[in-house]
Amino acid sequence: MRILVTGAGGYIGSILVPMLLEEGYEVIALDRFFFGREKLPQENSQLKILEEDIRFFEKDILEDVDAIIDLAALSNDPTGELDPVKTWSINYLGRFRVATLAKLMGVKRYIFPSSCSVYGFQDEIVDETSDTNPLTTYAKANLKAEKDILTLADNNFTVVILRQATVYGFSPRMRFDLAINGMVKGFFKNGKIPILRDGTQWRPFVHVKDTSKAMILALEAPSEKVNKEIFNVGSDDQNYQIFDLAKRVAEAIGIPFEYEWYGLPDHRSYRVSFKKIKKVLGFEPEYNAEKGAVEVWEALKSGKLDPDDPKTITVEWYKYLLKEGVMV
Ligand SMILES: NC(=O)c1ccc[n+]([C@@H]2O[C@H](COP(=O)([O-])OP(=O)(O)OC[C@H]3O[C@@H](n4cnc5c(N)ncnc54)[C@H](O)[C@@H]3O)[C@@H](O)[C@H]2O)c1
């Protein structure tokens, strides 16, 4: 079975692609490689690497592709605000284009790794049937893409939406702009865990290998179970308030709980139910925040990760690329 992964060189993609190869899939890894392509394995008979843009690639690329996991995007809220028009053109129009071409070219399944950020601010625990409340360009583009791509689904074209919790854990294309990863790096560099104000906001979390595992479950499940369905990806016990999460991170890696505040008060806060993915797909995460924090800590201590690598703060790297005149 041949799987096309867009955004394959990214934080999630560079974990997902080796997992797919391990499972015996043929993979086409498509990406603009804004963060470099050296994080992926070398091309071989099972893996083809294409430097292409989801907005412009030729549709022939999709010949003989069985399924698509569409990860390419400007991947967080601050990056989404750098140039909202570009964000819409990639995160909404680009994905809608990929899904439309996929259907046209006879691809059987399209998996859209969206985000729980579509819930925005909520007082109650939300599930897939709850009202959404996207607060940023990034979240609004995700939601519009979800809605429009779902309309393409039919008996020959399975569409699955995965609303991922905030991801954590080691990846070769590291992101220290994600909460748990950033907390560990902050302590590693400055002896203090950075906490986004005011720390009472709720957020669900999932490890990068676990969210990749969810994508593979969505790929392999019978169509009748997943077609036109939305699944939150995470687990009920990994909904945390940010201040409590920082305490857990400190405890897990055995450091004194020293912290510093940053940013303006975060207006996003949501607690999410993950019962559906557990029930329908049997999804159980292997990691929790503590285990993920220790993994990142060990990778920093051993030198496997460079805390000062400028590519690890997504918004700063895109600002640099735009300044350098790279066509984003
Ligand atoms: N990491 C998280 O916490 C998280 C949570 C929820 C949802 N998501 C979503 O999962 C997906 C992957 O996230 P990630 O953390 O791996 O992000 P990432 O930024 O590490 O990876 C995204 C990849 O997409 C590529 N890309 C960007 N624009 C492109 C274009 N026009 N054409 C081709 N490639 C392009 C980039 O080069 C990059 O390699 C994104 O859609 C993101 O919004 C991530």
Report on the architecture of this protein.
- 37% of the residues lie in helices and 21% in strands.
- The chain has 11 helices and 14 strands.
- α1 links the parallel β1 and β2.
- It has one domain (2-323): NAD(P)-binding Rossmann-like Domain (Rossmann fold, 3-Layer(aba) Sandwich), CATH 3.40.50.720.
- α3 packs parallel to α4 (137-150), α5 crosses α8 and α8 (242-253) crosses α10 (289-301).
- It has a 7-stranded parallel sheet with strand order 3-2-1-4-5-7-11, sandwiched between helices. It has a 3-stranded mixed sheet with strand order 8-10-12.
- It has 328 residues and is an alpha/beta fold.
- The mean pLDDT is 97.
- It has helices at 13-22, 77-82, 84-104, 137-150, 179-190, 208-220, 223-226, 242-253, 275-281, 289-301, 314-323, and strands spanning 2-6, 26-31, 47-51, 67-70, 109-115, 121-126, 158-164, 166-168, 193-196, 202-207, 229-233, 239-241, 259-262, 269-272.
Which structural traits does this protein have?
328 residues; alpha/beta; Rossmann fold; 7-stranded parallel sheet; 3-stranded mixed sheet; 11 helices; 14 strands; 21% strand; globular; binds nicotinamide-adenine-dinucleotide
